[in-house]
Every structure is written in structure tokens, then in C-alpha cells.
Amino acid sequence: MAANLNQLDRRRFLRGSGAALALPLFHSSLPLTAASPDRQTNPKRLACIYFPDGVPMPLREDPAYQDWSWFPHGAGTEFTFTKCTEVFQPLREDLTVLSGFSHPEARRVHGHRNADQFLTAAKIRRQGAYQNSISLDQVYAEHIGDQTRYSSLVMSTDGGTGTPRAAQTLSFNRSGRAIPAEQSPKKVFDMLFVKSDENAARRLAKSESALDEMLADARDLREILAVDDKRRFDEYLDSVREAEIRVQKARQWVKRPLPSVDRAKMEADISPESPRLYVQTMLDMIYLAFKTDSTRVATYQIGRENGAGVSDRLARAVGFNLAHQLTHNTKNPGGWKNLGMYCRFLNEEFARFTTRLKETPEPAGTGSMLDNTLLLFGSASSAFHLSRNYPLVLAGGRNLGFKHGRYLNYAGPNPMGGAWLGGKEPYQKEINHDDQPLTRVFVTMLQQLGMETDSFAGATGNFPELLG
């Protein structure tokens, strides 16, 4: 007979020879009030995922428009995905595509500076004193962070903070100071799940599984779990072991230094599959952190702007050398398709991550993990360096009141696009259509996550069209 685990500390660890592995959430370990079917007791999570450099936006008269435009064709519930975004089709009822949103203070800013502002909406100019403000994730982390082991998880492919106007992190604290992002999935894994003494660290360094020393403890614990929790526990151990294997493989790629030798030789030495594995592993870290309730807030900056850093080499996942160069080559034959194939790769990995949340029952509540998790995926550029009409996907949050299965297009009938052929760049041209303030979406997100607020970054108003 399963024991009542209401007194079990949800931050308990499996222990073995100096190492400790965090436990997942168990339905039977929560207080009875938290285990009720009331959806308001479900954990509420937020993850924001950013990619740089914008998306393909061929003009309507361009033959590439039909297949490789990032934005869908149509509007409302009557829309079709292109080859660039068709990977979202199985998730159609779980996401909303947004067009015609941007931050007013960033619309005249060169797109290479947009990562700094994506989650803050701050006024950051090309020159002069640099001052940012608190990011969306950290606003929510201040509200919810004391309920979990970590207030937030901050990650990026390039790591650290970058430099002012060239951020390598999406997250900024209350004073506008950049929060360093972690780039090593191994370090994220160890931070979230493994505490070790010197001996345990040496064993992990030899690629021995952190789980092997803990299986006896795990078997003892499993005996007192309820039937549903036994299944959750077994799935969790499998997930951790799978992630550990991925981490061991992926860290071989991310640890490679930036090229200081012949570029052709460097590229030949690195497997083209490594970038995909790396992105998958980083997203797996968010999944496991959420599943174990180690945190309810996460950010991941897939790449920094301007083609700098290790992240620019992620394009090799689909057979290209450098990601940023694809945006400059859209004027060449096949250029839109090439950029579209890279964006499709990013979309595939976001869809895979979203699907995994959808297929996982909420460990300690109702619905799926996706139903209780709000995902923001996108960029702060659309066409070449254009800081308007951000390409955005809002997914999940069904139990938070969000209604999906729509393409909400506020960009107007002829959004700026096309290849840059020289002269003024798109961001320098006259604004002929006012976007919706993205802060209204942010306010709605925070409200549905349980915060009492009607403003973000000094801008008031929400966007109830997102709700059911």
C-alpha cells in the first residue's frame, strides 16, 4: 500500500556517495489543497526563447513567397503554414502566431541591437549611455521565484552577458543589469540535478552515470509511491539519464573555441549534427527543470545578433556555414529558401520541445505541462535588420486562459519585406504602419500567470484578444 507522502519535502534528493539528484514533483507528495482539481493550483510557468537575425519575408510577387515566407498565409483561424513553418501544424490548436507587434522604443533601432530589448522594451539607442530595464522573465521570477529551488534559469548558446547593445542574455534584473547566461548544458544539468563532493565530481568526469550510485535509494523510494507516481518516477529517471547522455555529447561541440585557424579545417572537424543536438539539449534542460519544479521561469537565447559568437555556426545543422550570412544572401538565387531552411530548423526544435511538454501529464496538477506553461518564441527583427513586425509564436497556457489555433495579423496588407539590395536598410525607411505595442502581450501574459498588473515598462494596457 502506498504511503501518504504529504510530508515529503519536494526538494528532497536521491543520494549516493556524495552525489544528490533532485526528485520530480509527485502528486501524492503535495498538500491536499494543492492536489485538488482546481486549475488555479497548477504551477504556472514561463519560458522565453529568442533567435536572432529575423526571418524570410519575400515580397508577394516573389516566387519564394508561397513556400518560404515565415508568416502564414491568411488570418484568424483561416490560415496555412508555409514550408518554413509547417512543422507547427500538429500544434496548431496549441499556439498562436503573432504579426504586427513590436516595441515602440525599438522601431528605429538597427536589428543587431534588438536582443537587449526583446524582453525589456527599454529605450536603447545606438550611442550614448546604456541603460536597460527589467525583463519580462525577471518580473515573473520576482513574483514566483521563492516557490522553487531556483528563481529562474537563464541560458544562451554564447553564454555570459555579451556587451551593451550586443547582449548574449535575454534576462535583466530590476536595475537593468544583464544576468549572465549559462551556455554549457553539462553545467546546467549539474546545477539542477546533481550536487557532488570531489569524489563524485571525478566519477562524473569519467562519464559514469550519476544515477548508478542512487538506484538503491530510488528503489526504496519507489516502493512507497502511489501507482501514478511510480510511473512518473520511472519516466523521470529515464528522462534524466537520456538528458545526461545528450549533455555528454553536446558539450563536446559547445566547448570548441571560436576559430583561430583555417575556417575550412575547423568546419570539417565539427559534425553538422552537433548544433541540432546542442539546441535540443538546452531545451531539454528547460523541460527537466520545469518537470522537477526546480524553477518555473526560463530563458534561452539561441543566438546573438550580428553573426558573432559560436551561435552563428548553428546553421551547420542544415548544411550551411554561418547563420547571419543567410540574411545577407537573400538577394541571391535560392537565398530565401536557404534562410527559410535554417528558420525551419529552429521551428522544428521549438515544436519538438513544445510537443514534449504537451505529451507530459502535469506532474502535480491537471492537464499537460504545456497547459500550465506559457512559451514565447520569436525574434525582434522581421525583414533584414527591421525592428518591426516581430515574428512571434505564443504557445501553451490553456489552463491559464489562452485561446489558440489562430494567426493574429496586425501588420497590415503589405508589411515591409524583400531582400536588401543596397541603399537604405529597411529599418531606416519611413514607418507607414504602426505596430501594436508588444508590451500589451506582456501584460496579458503576466496577468494570466497570476500577477496583478496593468503595465509593463511604463506602458499600460493588455491584449484580451489572446484569451478564450
From TrEMBL:
Signal sequence residues: 1-34
The keyword Signal appears for this protein: yes
Record keywords: Signal
Keyword Cell inner membrane recorded: no
Protein name per UniProt: DUF1552 domain-containing protein
